[in-house]
Design brief:
The protein has 5 helices and 12 strands. By secondary structure, the protein is an alpha+beta fold. Its EC number is 6.3.4.15.
């Protein structure tokens, strides 16, 4: 798949910017990179803080990904794996926090917002909005646990370098999906999953509890086994990871 990259100084959101444009042909992955976003978006109503020119904020747009609608969570998996691959060139202790955040120990270095268009049970378009904290040293928003690559390795990194590594890795994992290697993708995702082993605190609508991760289903649901042996299944935003301080 060919890649076309456009660079802009500022936009409200790279996802919104792409969504206003026509979808690319299926043979092309379109990428828009912004130096800054005035209204960068995260999951739900969350915003994404990014100091001007310090971080990597971009979106990539693909048409008719060859993934069945009921397996659309695999698109989330491959975007997270691609970022993990790119950042692992610089540091260890990186994991993927369900559904698609990238963590360094207990701190968040990257997040992805995925927006899909569907027609007759077919995914017709998928836009991945990706933010990677690269050279921003301090964060002033109320985000609970941000961290940048510079905080980890104590030196600046070229944003263009991380973009290139991420896109190359994304192509690799996307090719695996197109070839039907779903089990391989899921195994790779589970192998680097945050809190993949052990009992940790979580919170849902009923309150605080402790549990271990037992499965992530193909539809993206997280299955936890609590200390009473009960299996709890959650969609995104239905459960909160309680971070250890």
């Amino acid at each position: 798949m060919k890649i076309h990259i456009d660079y802009i100084d500022q936009t409200e959101s790279t996802n919104s910017y792409l969504a206003k444009q026509s979808a690319p042909p299926s043979s092309l992955m379109k990428v828009i990179v912004a130096r800054s976003q005035s209204a960068g978006r995260g999951q739900g109503t969350n915003s994404w803080e990014s100091e001007d020119g310090k971080n990597l904020t971009f979106s990539l747009d693909i048409t008719r990904p060859q993934v069945p609608l009921h397996l659309n969570f695999y698109l989330s998996m491959i975007s997270a794996l691609a970022i993990h691959d790119a950042l692992s060139r610089y540091s260890k202790d990186l994991t993927l926090k369900w559904p698609n955040d990238v963590y360094y120990k207990d701190k968040k270095i990257s997040g992805t917002l995925i927006e899909t268009s569907v027609n007759s049970q077919i995914i017709t378009r998928c836009i991945f909005g990706i933010g990677i904290n690269v050279n921003q040293k301090e964060f002033v928003s109320d985000a609970p646990n941000p961290i940048s690559l510079i905080n980890i390795i104590n030196c600046e990194t070229k944003v263009s370098e991380i973009l290139s590594k991420t896109l190359k890795a994304f192509q690799k994992y996307y090719d695996q999906l197109r070839l039907g290697y779903y089990k391989s993708v899921k195994l790779q995702y589970m192998n680097v999953l945050y809190r993949s082993k052990g009992v940790f605190p979580y919170r849902d609508k009923d309150g605080l509890f402790e549990a271990e991760i037992v499965e992530i289903k193909d539809n993206g649901h997280l299955c936890l086994k609590d200390t009473e042996g009960r299996i709890r299944e959650y969609e995104q935003k239905e459960v909160q990871f309680v971070l250890l301080q």
